[in-house]
Amino acid sequence: MKTNHDDLKDTPVTVLDFSKWKKQGRKIGVLTAYDFSTAKLLDAAGVDCLLVGDSLGTVFQGRPTTLRVTLDQMVYHAEIVARAAGRALVVADLPFLSYQTSPADAVAAAGRFLKETECKAVKLEGGVRMLPALEAIAAADIPFMAHIGLTPQSVRRLGGYKVQRDAEAILADARAVAAAGAFSVVLECVPAEIAERVTTEIPIATIGIGAGPHCDGQVLVTPDMLGLFDEFQPSFVRRYADLGAIVSKAAADYLADVRAGRFPSKDESF
Ligand code: KIV
To answer: Which among 15, 119, 262, 264 could disulfide-bond with 257, CB atoms 3.0 to 4.6 Å apart, if both were Cys?
Structure first.
């Protein structure tokens, strides 16, 4: 008997599934991943797409922005996550200044993920202003996810992490990235009505983060939704677990056992 979850079994997700799912109205679930064990758990849970986001600059490296993340660091994490994934489509972020400098640099940077890792696609920020780079990446046959609305690599120009409300500019960016060949587009921090308009108008799947319920899919930064990252908490994040409290308690229990001589036991010794 066919179930709703048949498409979650076995067959690896490809970039073509995003448009298929958009047409079917099947919502797409994306989470970020940066390491092997977490990526394996998320993949086994049926996450459709693992994004090796440059958000690792904040939640993994503990920096205030993503600006200092390097291409070598992204390739390192992308290679690890892609090895852990069985079914999920693994997409890797191009970090700041790896593609803004020229279309040729963009192709060279994007190409590293396909040549040096098993990632199947890249993501880069920017709409109309990034068109030459997007077109060059598409011409090189490298599938890409676009990212518009609040683009964290533009934080200095935007003057902070603010909701983006210019509907016409967001629509122009969305049309531009779809025409350039993106297989999907992240909409970050845009009002729900604008995200709905974009989702209705463009043929590619929209993946929202702080963009309301009408997008074709949603993405969250995994340490945020697991309660592992406390430095700041955007209001659009829903916490599905409080792993921070579990880790703290486990560490405290371990220390108490070590200090009381309860660990290791005879069975845990040779
Ligand atoms: O870097 C990242 O993790 C992202 C997502 C938040 C969309 O770009």
So the answer is: 262
Residue type, 24: Q
My answer on whether 88 and 134 are in the same domain is yes
Bridge partners, residue 52, by sequence: 92
Give the atom of ligand 1 at the shortest distance from the alpha carbon of 207: 7
C-alpha–C-alpha distance, residues 231 and 257, integer Å: 29
Do 103 and 188 have their domain in common?
yes
Domain coverage including residue 110: 5-239
CA of 102 to the centre of ligand 1 (A): 22
**Exposed, middle or buried: residue 23 (CB in 10 Å: 0-12, 13-18, 19+)?**
exposed
Alpha carbon of 55 to ligand 1 centroid (Å):
5
Residues 120 and 170 in one domain: yes
Are residues 89 and 49 in contact, defined by beta-carbon separation less than 8 angstroms? yes
CA dihedral 180, 132, 209, 163 (to 10 degrees): -120
**Long-range contact list for 102-105, CB < 8 A, 24+ apart?**
102/133, 103/132, 103/133, 103/135, 103/136, 103/137, 104/136
Please state the domain count of the chain: 2
**Is 188 noted as a catalytic residue in this protein?**
yes
Are residues 143 and 206 both part of a single domain?
yes
Which atom of ligand 1 has the smallest separation from the CA of 66? 1
**Which CATH number belongs to the domain containing residue 188 in this structure?**
3.20.20.60
- Same-domain status, 71 and 168: yes
**What are the tens digits of pLDDT across the range 219-243?**
999 999 999 998 888 999 999 999 9
pLDDT in tens, 75-129: 999 999 999 999 999 999 999 999 999 999 999 999 999 999 999 999 999 999 9
